[in-house]
Each structure stands twice: as C-alpha cells, then as structure tokens.
Amino acid sequence: MRDIKQLVKDLHHTDNSFAYTSFKQLVEESKESNSVYPFFDDFIDMLEDDNSYIRNRGLILIAENSRWDIDNKVDEVLSQYLKHITDVKPITARQCIRGLEIIVDEKEDLVPDIKKALYNAIIEKYPSSMRKLIEKDIARVLKGIHKKF
C-alpha cells in the first residue's frame, strides 16, 4: 500500500478513477487498523467540498474511522454529517445514509440524533426514482437501529 498521507492527498486528484483507487485502499485500511484515523480532520473538510465525489469519500471515510474515534470527533461533526442526508446530490445522500449504518454500530450514544435526522429528512426534492432508493436506505438504517436497540 502506498503511504497513507499520499493516499489521503490523492482523494482530491482530478482523475476520479485514480482518486477512487486511493479511496478504496483507505477504506480497507480503515477496516483493519487506526492508521487512517490521524487524517480524520481532512475527511471532515471534504464534507464541504463542491465536488460531490469528494464529499462522498469524506462521508464514508468518517464512517469507517468512527470505530477508532477515541477523540469523539464524530460527535463533534455529527450535525455537519447529517446535513448530507439531504445533500443536493442524491448519490451523496445515499452515501451519507450508508455511512450512518456504520456509525450507529460504533457510536451508540449518537443513535437518538441519527434517528431524529432520518425521521425528519425531507427528500421530496429528489426525482421519484432516487427518492424511492433513499426511502429504502433510510428504512434499512432505522430497521437496523430498532433491531439493535
């Protein structure tokens, strides 16, 4: 694997295929160890990027690194993260919701805020085909929460 610092830098590469390869390596590493966690603040910064691909990468890397979050950074950034449930791009909304499944497993204390945000999400702005998918995503996360708690 390439240097973690370089992989994080490559998340912003203009070649999205190249950036995606770096992203996938960071996701896999995040599942195995805390070696990516020191770059958590970089992932937070990605949430506000104009490029939805970069926002997607930030959302998922925050979620994947929530298991290593000894500094409670997810707690601090949760409201910013939850805004992306209704991101302007429906694919980004779906990535956010997918990430919430991981966060719920790692940060039980955040479940009430996550549930509230999912229940209150206004998704009518999306085309009906995407809206149905987002509704299913939300229902899946809520079902997982209800099973677990």
Automatic annotation (TrEMBL):
InterPro entries xrefs: ARM-type_fold
Domain of life: Bacteria
Official protein name in the record: HEAT repeat-containing protein
